[in-house]
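Re: beginner question about structure tokens

> Can someone show what the tokenized structure looks like for a real chain? I only ever see the sequence side.

Sure, here's an example I had lying around. Input first:
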Amino acid sequence: IVQFSDAGQRRGMASVSKLVKTDDQWRRQLSSNAFDITRHADTEMAFTGKYWNLHEKGLYRCICCDNALFSSETKFDSGTGWPSFWDPIAPQNVQTIADSSYFMARTAVSCTECDAHLGHVFDDGPAPTHLRYCMNSASLRFVKQA
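And the corresponding structure tokens:
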């Protein structure tokens, strides 16, 4: 992964072991909503998460392992009711996998460090990437830029 300070400064590459915990350990760490979303690929209802309408500058980290995932610099209002970004802070920090659940062909996004389900990525975002990383607020922890 690529490590970042809370101020968004790139600290460099690091080789980290995959963070693995039991469901009971995750349940003790996370709210029930965050557990269902990150560990069992649930989705929060649109316009209900705490970050969909947040416009402050800062860094979005994984709620499970604190891996840096997205910067407010790539956040945009997609009109979907979920926090949306046109690029991750570092491509090494997220991973994608085909998701055919609910009779749809989508691409799921998860944290590289702990495999937490974050949301999905679509190809209808703004330039320069034309991607929309549509994330669940419950999968994220926002660190406000000082």
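Each token stands for a local structural state, so reading them left to right follows the chain. The first strand starts at residue 2 and ends at 4.
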